[in-house]
Each structure stands twice: as structure tokens, then as C-alpha cells.
Design goal:
alpha/beta, single chain, 11 helices, two-stranded antiparallel sheet, eight-stranded parallel beta barrel, TIM Barrel
């Protein structure tokens, strides 16, 4: 059994336990359940933003513990002040060291779009995402059927949540649902955990051009982002590269400053 299979098997047990502890009727009483959401898709298209989705992730199955004792409040606020377009908050506890409380804390202090990064396998988790303050959910094509992707996307939209559908391999394009809000390409193969950023370039021309595209995993320098933008990507999810630094929000700030400087220089070169 590979890591992904272990995660999904554990997630099925976890969701059943959470359903028993926190019934839907209780989730619906959350102050966030009827609150308006912020559009991830719209923020990724904003010209005044970087396109960076800055991630808060304490650990991962592939990297182990990354940065265990960081404050989600300080880091998330710092990410936003640095110019990130959105936040991605890991809420899986067992494999990623996250929690629903991490996302709710980030929601309390930030008005930007927040992606709930977790392994969605049930409509219950979508209702839960809304109740903890998320604006968007992640659906992973590798673990869902096309029918489930349609079902979960429609359920999310009823709650005014957006959907980032994550693909990795061209074979998964058959699961693409035209109603998803954002399409992500994970450069990490979830079966082997190996990263190859070329996967984003392979997938770029295969995804319909009108769809908002995000490259995920393995991005470590601004030159990769310049190339990905040229290939048609609007967003760039970066987690480990920031989180492994003593102060992730400062690493994010420096990264975006360098990106803006290079982008501005290139724009001047083209205009001249």
C-alpha cells in the first residue's frame, strides 16, 4: 500500500468519526456557514497580485517535520502582507500536522481567499470546509471518480465555495469537469512522491486555455514562475520552499519582491 492509499484509507475512518462527533446540524451553526466567501479564481487573475498561493504546512509524508512550531496567525498574516494572492492551509492532522483550527485562525486574521488543503472524499467535508471559514476546497482526481468530482463540485458551489481540481497525469484529463473554478497540476506524483516540475509544462497545452491554471509543488525560484506564466499558468502553490525557512513569511516576501522586480524589468524590455 503506497502513501496515498494509506492516507485515503485513514481519511475514510477519520471522516466517519468526525461525522459522529460533529453532526452537520452543528456545523451549520458556525458563524462562517452563512458568511460570504472570497473568490480564489478572481484573486488569481488580479494583475496587482503575485499569483502565489502561500501554504501553511507543518509536515508532510515525503519531507517529515518541516517547521512544527510556527504560528499560523503570524505566518498567514505575513504571507498576505508579502503580496500572496491566497492562502493554502493543510487541515489533515495525521499526515500533515494540520487542523481545522489552523484554517479558522487564518480566516480570523485574513480577508483573502483560503484554500482548504485536505483529501476530500465526502460531502460532509465540504460542509465542514464552509463551517471553518474556507473559500475553496481541493479535489484530487487521483482519488476520485468523475462522478464524485461532479457531485462534490456541485455541492461546493451550492455553499458558494470554489473548487480547485488537482490533476497530475494526462490520463486524468477525462475526469475534468468544466464547472470547476481552478485546475491545478501537481508536479508531485502522489503514488511515488517524486517531483518533476516538467509535469506542469506537459499538462499546460492539454488543459482548456480558458481555465485558470495553478502549478503545485516543487517551485523554488522565480525563473520557474516566469516560465510557468509564459505557459499559461495563473497561480503557483508554494509550501515547503517557504515553510522550511525560519520565517516563512519573510521568505515569501523576498520571493515576491524578486518576482516583481524581474517581471517589471521584462515588461519594460518588451515595451521598449
Amino acid at each position: 500500500m503506497n502513501t496515498l492509499q494509506k492516507i485515503i484509507e485513514h481519511k475514510r475512518t477519520e471522516v466517519k468519526e468526525r461525522e459522529a462527533l460533529y453532526p452537520i446540524e452543528l456545523l451549520q451553526q458556525s458563524k462562517y456557514f452563512k458568511s460570504p466567501t472570497v473568490s480564489l479564481a478572481a484573486y488569481l487573475k488580479r494583475a496587482d497580485k503575485s499569483g502565489i498561493i502561500a501554504e501553511f504546512k507543518k509536515q508532510s509524508p515525503s519531507a517529515g517535520v518541516i517547521n512544527k512550531y510556527l504560528s499560523v496567525e503570524k505566518t498567514s498574516i505575513g504571507y498576505m502582507q508579502a503580496g500572496a494572492s491566497a492562502l493554502s492551509i493543510l487541515t489533515d492532522k495525521t499526515f500533515f500536522g494540520g487542523s481545522s483550527d489552523d484554517l479558522t485562525t487564518a480566516r480570523k486574521y485574513n480577508f483573502c481567499p483560503i484554500l482548504r488543503k485536505d483529501f476530500t472524499i465526502s460531502e460532509y467535508q465540504i460542509i465542514e470546509a464552509k463551517s471553518i471559514g474556507a473559500d475553496a476546497i481541493l479535489l484530487i482526481a487521483a482519488v476520485l471518480t468523475k462522478e464524485e468530482i461532479i457531485q462534490f463540485t456541485d455541492a461546493a458551489h451550492k455553499l458558494k465555495l470554489e473548487v480547485l481540481l488537482e490533476l497530475h497525469h494526462p490520463d486524468e484529463l477525462v475526469k475534468l469537469y468544466d464547472q470547476v473554478d481552478v485546475v491545478g497540476v501537481n508536479n508531485r506524483d502522489l503514488n511515488t512522491m517524486k517531483i518533476d516540475i516538467q509535469q506542469s509544462f506537459i499538462m499546460a497545452d492539454l488543459i482548456p486555455k480558458h481555465m485558470i491554471k495553478v502549478s503545485e509543488s516543487g517551485i523554488e525560484n522565480i525563473h520557474e514562475i516566469i516560465k510557468l506564466k509564459a505557459a499559461g499558468y495563473n497561480g503557483f502553490l508554494i509550501g515547503s520552499h517557504f515553510m522550511k525557512q525560519p520565517h516563512p513569511h519573510l521568505a515569501c516576501k523576498e520571493f515576491i519582491e524578486q518576482l516583481n522586480k524581474v517581471s517589471h524589468a521584462e515588461s519594460n524590455t518588451i515595451s521598449n
